[in-house]
Amino acid sequence: MSKAVFYHAGCPVCVSAEQTVADHLKDEVEKVHLGEQGGRVAEAEQSGVKSVPALVIDGQVFHINHGADLSALK
Amino acid sequence: MSKAVFYHAGCPVCVSAEQTVADHLKDEVEKVHLGEQGGRVAEAEQSGVKSVPALVIDGQVFHINHGADLSALK
């Protein structure tokens, strides 16, 4: 089984939403909070991550734009 | 098992890349080519899809920005 890495920066609304994607993947998903694990920013950059949240699967980078609903903030 | 819907418009580079995401989901994934199935654009809009490619899982919309590598075009 391949491994997926989910990079994020801790925005609670986005993490909650994108958790959905992680939960629906067949792979083991490692979650990396780049705000807390600054030492891994270089690794993320080398993988091709340009912005967070991003999902890296088998070396391919997917930048995910959920666009949180305003209802999540009420 | 829930169902995921993957909306796209047939860009071959992007479809190839995003196929990776679809293949890694646990769910059954329905692929809808909105360029060919224009009758489903309204349905996509109602789901909250603003642009393609987009993935709808359990009613949540995720706009995916892969940013195809130029190497895929060589």
UniProtKB/TrEMBL annotation, chains A, B:
Which Pfam families does this UniProt record tie to the protein? Thioredoxin_3 (PF13192)
Q: Where do the Thioredoxin-like fold domain residues begin and end?
A: 4-63
What's this protein's name?
Thioredoxin-like fold domain-containing protein
- Recorded source organism is Thalassoglobus neptunius
